Amino acid sequence: MKTAPRTTEQFDVVVIGAGIVGSALARELAGYQLNVALIEARTDVGDGTSKANTAILHTGFDAKPGSLESRMVREGYRLLSDYASATGIPVERTGALLVAWNQEELDALPGLKDKAAANGYSQTELISASEVYRQVPDLGDGALGGLTVPDESIICTWTTNLALATEAVLRGVTLLLNHRVSGAEVRDDVTILHTDQGDVATRWVVNAAGLGSDVIDRLFGHDRFTVVPRRGELLVYDKMARPLVNRIVLPVPTSRGKGVLVSPTIYGNVMLGPTAEDLADRTDTGTSEEGFEFLLSKGARLMPRLLHEEVTASYAGLRAATEHSDYIVDADARTRYAVAGGIRSTGLTAGMALAVHVTGLLGDAGLALAPRESVPAVPQMPNIGEAALRPYQDAARIAADPAYGTVVCFCERVTAGEIRDTFVSPIPPSGLEGLRRRTRAMNGRCQGFFCGAEVTELLESRGESSCATSHCQKEDQR
Ligand SMILES: Cc1cc2nc3c(=O)[nH]c(=O)nc-3n(C[C@H](O)[C@H](O)[C@H](O)COP(=O)(O)OP(=O)(O)OC[C@H]3O[C@@H](n4cnc5c(N)ncnc54)[C@H](O)[C@@H]3O)c2cc1C
């Protein structure tokens, strides 16, 4: 992986932002004969909004028909489903159930069914209250009916971002981490991006900077949208709660968003959320007491039994909301610049479709798109989902390499072998948070209380101290 400042090299295209959208774009562009760089302000890929969402692979049944978002979500669902199968990104097709809790919501369900059909999705089904309770027996009292959405799925957002960025790097993309773009000079045939690690020269620029996409857009002379961070807080319940929630349970959506849902997670937990609160601070990903109380009050109505289970974690993500209801996607031939901004609440699903779409716009604007004759095989991502075999369960793998039998994080059953593997992967973690997203280490009910020291030691020694600690030795003797 190339991460040093590359002030002398001129790129054909620089993509700003290594979230899901930017990583998908860099990967897509690297399928052509182009010298591409992916520039990220943070120390790791996938460390912005793409790390903290509800992780649902949406069918797009409730998008605004005819919008770009509707098209991108529908197409993205197909592309990401196929990509997940090819790379091993964990996905579970749990299906979703929209529940009506009052007459107004019940009356809205047939319209939502029609809207789904207008969005190209005809598999929804209206069901009675008794069928709602048959499907989700632990729902709170008072449900009047429902609409099933059988193809809504849960997915690992962390592995999705990492897979896309990893494949971009394997295809030759230069990943420049720790490079915050602060200025842009568009000259006749080159654009100079000023970053806090020096200048980067490129012919074309693609802005996928998420919460910073309006700021970058202004560097290119535009004033067409402003990002207002819309915080979504979520509660994560212990794995003991998982049998209560066998599918995604959605409220009837409103103009402000999809509302508070209950969903299984790909890691075997249950999540409740998100909230929707507009903030002024684009960095405020902290959770709040009000958010916690609000979610508990919603949970009490949705599924009172859930409140008897333990909350093991809470987190918040910031949606890049704007004054526009649709994504802001455009390419400008004169400044050799494209934007994919304001990708508010469906970008995990839509990212790969946006990458294809924006690449097409760049081609129309004059970027030469000659496909590469061959591209490397897609990466095989480590499985951190509960639905498929994990290394600690795999006897053959453990026999071949005992490090996969040495559990370091007991809550999440993460082994020394998996942690070690991250350090030799194309995009190694830069810190504990990155390691957590790659392995689930410290992500369980103890939140690193028991394994934190050992995981830190493994990180600091880049896996060399594996099994040297007293804890590992004890495990080996069992
Ligand atoms: C609570 C919540 C729930 C959601 N649920 C879902 C869901 O269930 N399904 C779904 O499909 N979507 C969901 N989303 C939406 C989805 O998470 C986002 O649309 C998606 O992650 C946006 O990706 P992105 O690449 O545009 O932005 P980001 O992931 O934020 O990436 C942008 C990157 O640009 C970098 N950057 C910014 N400024 C600069 C700069 N000046 N220089 C260099 N780098 C810069 C940032 O550091 C960041 O890494 C949800 C979002 C939230 C907040």
Give keywords.
478 residues; alpha+beta; 22 strands; globular; disordered C terminus; binds flavin-adenine dinucleotide
Strand content: 15-25%
Rounded Rg? 23 Å
Structure annotation, total helices: 13
Outline: globular
Task: Kindly state the number of beta strands.
Answer: 22
Ranges where pLDDT stays below 50 over 5 or more residues in a row are 467-478
Rounded mean pLDDT is 94
Largest sheet: 8 strands, mixed
Task: Give the fraction of residues assigned to helices.
Answer: 25-40%
Based on secondary structure, the structural category is alpha+beta
Give the cofactors and ligands.
Answer: flavin-adenine dinucleotide
First-residue to last-residue Cα separation: 39 Å
Walkthrough of the structure:
The protein is α+β, with helices and mostly antiparallel strands and 478 residues long. The protein is 31% helix and 22% strand. The strands form five sheets. Strands 1, 2, 9, 10, 11, 12, 19 and 20 form an eight-stranded mixed beta sheet that branches. Strands 13, 15, 16, 17 and 18 form a five-stranded antiparallel beta sheet that branches. A hairpin with a 4-residue loop joins strand 10 (181-186) and strand 11. The longest helix has 20 residues, at 68-87. Mean pLDDT is 94; it is low at 467-478. Residues 16-22, 39-42, 47-50, 53-56, 58, 180-181, 208-212, 216, 232, 274, 317-319, 343-349 line the site of flavin-adenine dinucleotide.
